[in-house]
Each structure stands twice: as structure tokens, then as C-alpha cells.
Design goal:
Layout (H helix, E strand, L loop, with lengths): L1 E2 L5 E2 L17 H51 L7 H4 L6 E4 L7 E6 L3 H4 L4 E3 L15 E6 L20 E5 L3 E15 L20 E9 L6 E14 L12
Organism: Streptomyces fungicidicus
Pfam families: Sortase
Protein name: Class E sortase
């Protein structure tokens, strides 16, 4: 701005600003780093979705399947003597229900076998191999050995670590409640240790034949490296009444 002869001010144009510098292209190293950064984010998202699928959605699907099978069992029992005889007891739908208050408030359907096809339906399965379980309904002494998932696919034994000595384990059939009490726990053992399933589970401290129950599942949580074992012993049985009143241990 400059003064003129008549005392007025004259505006002059300011010098033009220099043009902004051109945007620099990232170098090859930066390009590679950016690519791998985006790739890691994508992989992270995929892994996150897989975890959601494994730990949540498989539970939803398994619970639906287990509920459907459980309804079939109870409907069969409700038919009376003609629909609930020995033939239907060991049916493909399930043989009874496990109740473990300290571990879960849910009833757990028990089916034959411990294959992934069986356990992935959100149930517990009794062993047929490598050691055959002794069903309590047989009246014979032996070990009613069971397995279930700890995570995913219903995760029916997820809370097995909550069990302590003296806690009840109840198995419900059409006509009888079998009441067991926990007496032994093995927090970690090899998945190849089949002795824990023996008719006399000597590793539990028992030396004589009896009426035992064994719960097995994977450990640590979210892995299948080892097995977590809980042993119980039958303390009494109770006949099922018309109202299917649960025993005192489940009250």
C-alpha cells in the first residue's frame, strides 16, 4: 500500500504466492510397508471373525441341535411304557441328562460315542472306545466315562474347573436319578492316558470295583493339548416320580 499526491492510499498487488510443492510419491519401501500393514489388518479381521465363529456361533448351532434332540428324548419318555422301554433308552437321540450344578445350570444331553460328530452337537458322549463305559442302567460295577467340549460347539464342560470334592453329579434317566459325589480331580493329564477311563480308575485313588462316573474334557482352555479329569462315585439312586421332582442335590 502506497500514498498518492492527493493523500489517498493506493493499493498495490501483493506478490503472488509460490505454487504448493508437488505431492511426493511414496518410495518402494513405504509402498511395501503399507501393503503389508493393510494385509495384517485384513488377516486380523479374518481371524477375529473365525474366533467369533468358533466360540460363539458354533455354540448357537450346537445348542439348537442339542435342544432338538433333548425334546425328542423327553417326548419319548412322556409316551409311557410303550414308548420308553429298553429299546428306546439307548436311542440315537440320547440316553439321559447330566446335571452338574457347580459346573453349569443347564441339563446336558448324553449320547453314545465321543466322536466330533457326536460332541459337536452340544452334548456329552459316553465312551465306546478305547475303553467302553459302563452305563449306570446296567446295574454293573464300572465307570460311566463321559466327554464333552470345553469351548465351542456348546462348551458343555466349560466350567469343569469349578467342581470340587463333594459336589454332586446327577444323571437322569426315564425312571431313575443316579446321584454321584465328586471325590477326585486331575487338572492335567496326557490325552493318551486311557487309564483314567478304567472300570477301576486307580489313578483317582480307588482300588476296588464300584459305581464310578468320569468327566473328561480338554485343557488348558481354548486348547486340546491335555485332558482335565473329574471322578465321582455313586452314593444313591432315586426313583423318578410322576412330576419328575429333582433330587435334593438339584434343589
Amino acid at each position: 500500500m502506497a500514498a498518492t499526491a492527493d493523500g489517498t492510499e493506493q493499493h498495490t498487488d501483493a506478490p503472488a504466492s509460490p505454487p504448493p510443492p508437488g505431492r511426493r510419491r511414496p518410495g518402494p519401501v513405504a509402498t511395501v510397508v503399507g501393503f503389508f500393514g493393510e494385509l495384517l489388518i485384513t488377516v486380523g479381521l479374518v481371524l477375529g471373525l473365525f474366533v467369533v465363529y468358533s466360540l460363539w456361533w458354533t455354540n448357537v448351532v450346537a445348542d439348537r441341535a442339542a435342544d432338538k434332540q433333548a425334546d425328542k428324548v423327553r417326548d419319548n419318555w412322556a409316551q409311557g411304557p410303550d414308548g420308553g422301554g429298553p429299546v428306546s433308552f439307548d436311542s440315537k437321540n440320547g440316553i439321559g441328562f447330566l446335571h452338574v450344578p457347580a459346573m453349569s445350570g443347564d441339563e446336558i444331553l448324553v449320547e453314545k460315542g465321543t466322536s466330533m460328530k457326536v460332541l459337536n452337537d452340544g452334548v456329552a458322549g459316553y465312551y465306546t472306545d478305547p475303553v467302553k463305559a459302563t452305563l449306570p442302567t446296567s446295574g454293573k460295577k464300572g465307570n460311566f466315562s463321559l466327554a464333552a467340549h470345553r469351548d465351542g460347539h456348546g462348551a458343555k464342560f466349560h466350567g469343569i474347573h469349578k467342581l470340587a470334592k463333594g459336589d454332586p453329579i446327577v444323571f437322569e434317566t426315564k425312571d431313575t436319578w443316579y446321584v454321584y459325589k465328586v471325590y477326585g480331580i486331575l487338572p492335567e493329564t496326557s490325552k493318551y492316558n486311557v487309564d483314567v477311563l478304567g472300570k477301576i480308575p486307580k489313578e483317582s485313588g480307588r482300588k476296588k470295583a464300584g459305581h464310578y462316573i468320569t468327566l473328561t474334557t480338554c485343557t488348558p482352555v481354548y486348547t486340546s493339548k491335555y485332558r482335565y479329569i473329574v471322578w465321582g462315585e455313586l452314593v444313591r439312586t432315586e426313583k423318578v416320580d410322576e412330576e419328575r421332582t429333582p433330587p435334593a442335590e438339584l434343589g
